[in-house]
Amino acid sequence: MTANKPGDVVLVGIDESETSLTPVRWAAAEAKRRDCRLELFHAGIGETVDVPAKVAERKAREVFGRAHRWLSRAAEVAEDAAPGVRTQLVARVGFAADLLIELSRSVSLVVLGSHGLGGLRGAAIGSVALRVAASASCPVVVVRGRAAPGGAVVVGVDGADGAEHVLEFAFDAAASRQAPLVAVRAWHAALVDEPGRADAEERALRERIGAWAEKYPAVETRALAVRDRSAARALMTVEGAQLVVIGSRGRGPVAGGLLGSTGNRLLAHSACPVAVVH
Fold it and tell me: Which residues form the UspA domain (predicted)?
């Protein structure tokens, strides 16, 4: 999450709603923090049936005209949220989820609201956010709830191998925000208590994150092993967080490009933004 990485770009998706400007504010602050460009993205749906050329041209102008108006509005919001942030407006015709997944191959971070961009209204989590969070090539932050100022960065740690990039993202996020980090691991046992199991789980978790804590000595780090079958519920026990970070592979989050119960529940019910790290 720190600045000055080659090709570092934060991409935020908006639609034609005021609620989609909330993730713009978050993304603008993140781009400013990284000292990188913020790309404001809007997807318009063109006519899908055969129409005369003149009609098609008129409809295309209307689509891009609306896109430009909303993107310009989003650029103003970004400037207000993070004065001096560098912005670029990107308008494409097509389905938002498909386009965002494609664009995720060439950016560092995708930021979305929990609803909008053409997804279904009334659901706990929008279909576009859910699909992009599961299938993007880069980390995706779904902005929902409230990022508590000065709150902790919370990272989910399971027993899966290959999760170093998740810990790196989380520690980098905490360092760049001068925020504490809480590493959370859910565990469960049989109905009969196992003496010393809770202490053993916490020791194992401290060992698991130890190398990263040494690499980031300025980050105040805490290990929290929670006895709970639900990893999402364990992560949400940390109150006043500003960001929850989970991986896209492992026991809980993702299998076969579809978010599992942990990812689904966090994206639908977390009290703060959630980062899914690929």
Answer: 10-144, 153-278
